[in-house]
């Protein structure tokens, strides 16, 4: 916790306003809109919920195809499968592990309706190129920015570079609320629709602003709001977001500098951050020289009391991914990196010296 969480929770109790869209929720909306330069931010109970809202706003229906990386969390695909959409999985770049912009155009068909990018580890995708492709073919562009709060691409905040974007405030992220997320709406004409979808398909938000006499069912929607206790905790985190980010970047840099010698002799590969990308220190990972080497590193770290873990099972290799998705071309980089990647502990209180010492010991065994 950053300091004000318990005080803000107590204020919620004193206000006796526990349901969604209370004063703390509104302050979180204002913080996101100001710091990310987006027209509208709406808190949700998870990033998964925000992704599901993007599927509703873009009117994904049965048979509509959505291009996305396979190296992502299941929610990226689930949101569209729930509406009858078909995830079309594309390989990642070997350097950043982001969707390979050179492969998107060949995956487009007459059924394609949207492109979803995932800013892996808080490092931006090649948004200029991807944006141009989306506009060329008249496709919606969605950012899964679950890792990317306060990351930037060519000076612009991730989450502001698309039609819609989604953030996560899960306890594993930089800024946390236990569970929580946000939808960022970058098209002004969707602002009212987004509110309606988020409020069970009703115009309840307009009713509370005095814009309608009574609220009614207007469209398909669901209950995507978080409660005020969640928002109050989150606001305390937002108020310290820049400080949290600086500390995480310092930890990331300590890892990066200490492990340069290991990369130079070929035992591991460090993360790559392209020019023009300002990341947020969300994750520090290593790519081992082989799948066998990755397993040995994870076991060796565990024996020294440190948890270094893998990441995603590629969606196209999962049972549900094979049932609901499409994979028009081989995905060699996705399959390879999933077998070789391991993540090092990264949180504000981590003992970086102990982690670095342990990983060097294991690498040199």
Could you please describe the fold and organization of this structure?
The chain is an alpha/beta fold and 365 residues long. The protein folds into two domains: 235 residues, Type I PLP-dependent aspartate aminotransferase-like (Major domain) (Aspartate Aminotransferase, domain 2); 123 residues, Aspartate Aminotransferase, domain 1, CATH 3.90.1150. Helix content is 41%, strand content 15%. The protein is built from 15 helices and 13 strands. The strands form three sheets. Strands 1-9-8-5-4-2-3 form a seven-stranded mixed β-sheet, sandwiched between helices. A three-stranded antiparallel β-sheet has the order 7-6-11, with no helix packed on it. α3 packs parallel to α4 and α12 packs across α15. The radius of gyration is 21 Å and the shape is globular.
What is the structure about, briefly put?
The protein is an alpha/beta fold.
Give helix and strand order, one letter per element, not per position. Answer: HHEHEHEHEHEEEEEHHHHHEEEHHHEH
Could you tell me the radius of gyration in angstroms?
A: 21 Å
Oligomeric nature of the chains? single chain
Q: Which CATH class of the largest domain applies here?
A: Alpha Beta
Shape: globular
CATH topology assignment of the largest domain: Aspartate Aminotransferase, domain 2
Stretches where pLDDT is under 50 for at least 5 consecutive residues are: none
State the secondary-structure class: alpha/beta
- The count of strands amounts to 13
CATH superfamily of the largest domain: Type I PLP-dependent aspartate aminotransferase-like (Major domain)
Strand arrangement across the biggest beta sheet: 1-9-8-5-4-2-3
- Ends apart, CA distance between termini: 38 Å
State the helical fraction. 40-55%
What's the number of domains? 2
Proportion of beta-strand residues: 5-15%
Q: Would you tell me the overall average pLDDT?
A: 96
What is the level-2 CATH architecture name of the largest domain? 3-Layer(aba) Sandwich
């Amino acid at each position: 916790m950053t300091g004000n969480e318990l005080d803000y929770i107590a204020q919620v109790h004193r206000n006796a306003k526990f349901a969604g869209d209370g004063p703390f929720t509104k302050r979180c909306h204002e913080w996101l809109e100001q710091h990310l330069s987006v027209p509208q931010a709406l808190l949700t109970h998870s990033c998964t919920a925000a992704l599901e809202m993007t599927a509703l706003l873009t009117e994904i229906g049965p048979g509509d195809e959505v291009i996305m990386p396979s190296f992502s969390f299941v929610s990226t695909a689930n949101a569209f499968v729930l509406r009858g959409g078909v995830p079309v999985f594309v390989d990642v770049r070997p350097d950043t592990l982001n969707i390979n912009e050179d492969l998107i155009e060949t995956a487009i068909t007459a059924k394609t309706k949207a492109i979803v990018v995932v800013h892996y580890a808080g490092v931006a995708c090649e948004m200029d190129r991807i944006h141009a492709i989306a506009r060329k073919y008249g496709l919606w562009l969605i950012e899964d920015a679950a890792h990317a709060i306060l990351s930037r691409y060519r000076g612009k905040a991730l989450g502001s570079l698309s039609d819609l974007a989604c953030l996560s405030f899960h306890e594993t992220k930089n800024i946390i609320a236990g569970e929580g997320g946000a939808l960022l709406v970058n098209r002004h004409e969707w602002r009212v629709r987004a509110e309606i979808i988020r409020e069970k398909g009703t115009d309840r938000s307009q009713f509370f602003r005095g814009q309608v006499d009574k609220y009614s069912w207007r469209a398909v929607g669901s209950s995507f709001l978080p409660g005020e206790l969640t928002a109050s905790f989150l606001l305390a985190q937002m108020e310290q977001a820049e400080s949290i980010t600086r500390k995480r970047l310092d930890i990331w840099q300590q890892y990066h500098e200490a492990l340069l010698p290991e990369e130079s002799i070929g035992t591991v590969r460090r993360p790559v951050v392209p020019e023009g990308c300002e990341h947020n220190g969300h994750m520090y990972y290593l790519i081992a020289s082989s799948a066998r080497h990755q397993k040995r590193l994870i076991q060796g770290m565990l024996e020294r009391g440190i948890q270094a873990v893998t990441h995603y099972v590629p969606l196209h290799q999962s049972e549900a991914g094979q049932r609901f998705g499409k994979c028009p071309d081989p995905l060699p980089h996705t399959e390879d990196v999933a077998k070789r990647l391991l993540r090092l502990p990264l949180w504000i209180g981590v003992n970086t010296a102990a982690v670095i010492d342990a990983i060097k010991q294991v690498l040199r065994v």
